[in-house]
Amino acid sequence: MKIKTTNTNMTLSIAAQKDEAEKNSFYKEMFEVMIQNSPVSMYILDGWAFSFINQHFCTLTGYTEEEFLAGKMTIEDLFHPDDLSIVKERIKSRVDNREDLSRYRARVYKKDGELIHVEIHGTRMERNGKTLLFGTVFDVTGEVTANLKLEESKERFKSLFYNNPDAIFTMDLEGVFTDANPGCETLTGYSTKELLEMSFAPLIVSEDLTTTLQHFNEALQGIPASYEISINRRDGKRRNIEVTSFPMKQAGKITGAYGIVKDITDKVEHQKLMEELVFFDSLTKLSNRKLFEDRLRQVFKLSETNEKPVAVLFVDLDRFKFINDSLGHHAGDEFLKTVSKRLTENVRKTDTVGRFAGDEFAVLLPSIAEQEAIELAKRLNQAIAEPFEIMGHSLSVSASIGIAFSNGTEENVDSLIKKADTAMYYTKKYGKNNYTVYSEELDRKTAYKLTLEKGLKTAMANQEFIVHYQPITDLSTGEIRAMEALIRWKHPELGMVPPDNFIPISEESGHIVSIGKWMLQTACAQNKAWQELGYPPFKMCVNISTIQLQHPNFVETVKTVLEETGLEARWLELEVTESILMEDTKVLKDSLTNLKELGISLSIDDFGTGYTSLSYLRQFSFDRVKIDRSFVADITQDLNGKTITSTIISLAHKLNMQVIAEGIEDETQLSFLKEEKCDEGQGYYFSRPLPANMHDLSKTPKKYW
């Protein structure tokens, strides 16, 4: 009985041991799985070598377990050289039992070369007489990077705050300064310590305090604002400032307000100065045109119920240019100031005297009878005619005055001033030291002429001239042999002005010299441009006037233009009107001769309408003649045009000159000219004069028959 019991107990003991062994095996396996699948990197160091690492450690570093356990990957290889001494010291202190637990950070190189930041938590244990070190490793690269960026951001903020030349500050909910940069000291004259013991209110000028408090309260409600106010510095000086205020938040809660302030005192003063420059003439201190027009506009509104009209006097000084050129601009300026004073002294207190430009003045006369305005103009003429004492010189000038009266509600500022201006130019042209009252009966042609003459002064500078080109066609082949350059004036008010209207005026005024040079330069440059594009070369025909030919530098001007544009002389032809040849002057003859010597072609325009002597045709060796369009027009009507045209062609050919027919418009004219062996022709039948970019020279020459 006793033996049986013993056997039973032994059996139970063996079973229990077996269960315990299975249980231990299970927990060991479970622990192994947990360690290997843990989201934390784990390691065990035996001395200086790794004796265990889990899978997450391999994933973190990129190395395999074999590389670590076989000693291929050591601590020296893993850690950044600058951090290696720290890592070794912490390991040694645990081995020497100087610390049980350690926590530190270091930089680790991954297998792909990436440098990461890790935090190591380590401890130690004794096993079988050996010291083992084990612990966990966390990737803190994201945290470290974020902290670095945060520190950089803080440094940037401090740099912007303390080094900014503008005043930057913070205030609490009561408006007391809590921080202020050096710019605040510069702006206010108070030290930072003094500012931090006061609110902003004492700095603000009384008239701006309400506005400032309103914007401060808006900032505390989350509403940013930008506004301009004035402050009093500690030394009592006033400064104009531009304030930008916005809420200051901590943990999402508004705890005060930020402020950025720019000192705009210089800007404000500059604006005031600019306003003076905008509305007043800087030399005479009279109203300038802008202010004059504004006052005239206001007078119009006030005078709607007034029976008396509004009047404008336009005053232009005669001979002022002579004073300016002979005595210098300083004397000229002093003279203008004295004239301004005289004008002001001789008008009513309600009148406005303005200076428009140079020696041009205007006087605004609100609500005035016509005769009263005329008497005032006479008084101004007399006042200006009195001698002026300027810098030791006694100067005498006169004034040309134009008077214009408003004619009802349809009148406007621009039209009234323009009428007075037109009347003044009439005076200047036909009277001087007098006045003219503008009326609808005023010579319209003269007014038009005066408008053109005035416009010619600025037409070149304003680039109002354009050039159109009309082809000259070989009547036997249909090919283009030449282009005639024809100037056009795109007047800003009158629109396109025909050359016949403004060329005579430009000759009278002397503007033809500069206009002619520009025309020649433009035409030659265009012909050279066509040549460089690969088109077959042809002549460029440019009209010149008697004034140009008689100018002593004309031939040199032509030579310079050819050199500057690169156009060969043989591709330029100058056209002169038949009437030029009646001018029997040596300068004209020399110019024609010298032009021929340059290799330039010469032609006579409008041939048959003047009294050309055959001797001139031989003397100057003209290359071509142009039959006037009036004879070509008569061809269709079967008048004497056919006979005259045929005679001109025959005569020119006998003198070895080619013939061009102008104004060809239909097939009948063309057929007759071809029969008469006319060499070339131009007219609407072939092409109207067009801008250069509208000529398609790439097309095959058109055959018109």
From TrEMBL:
Sequence ranges assigned to domain PAC in this UniProt record: 225-276
The PAS domain, residue ranges: 23-98, 153-223
EAL domain boundaries: 449-703
Gene3D superfamilies attached to this UniProt entry: 3.30.70.270, EAL domain (3.20.20.450), PAS domain (3.30.450.20)
Source organism, top-level taxon: Bacteria
Ranges where the GGDEF domain occurs: 308-440
Protein name per the record: PAS domain S-box-containing protein/diguanylate cyclase (GGDEF)-like protein
Naturally occurring in which organism (per UniProt): Planomicrobium soli
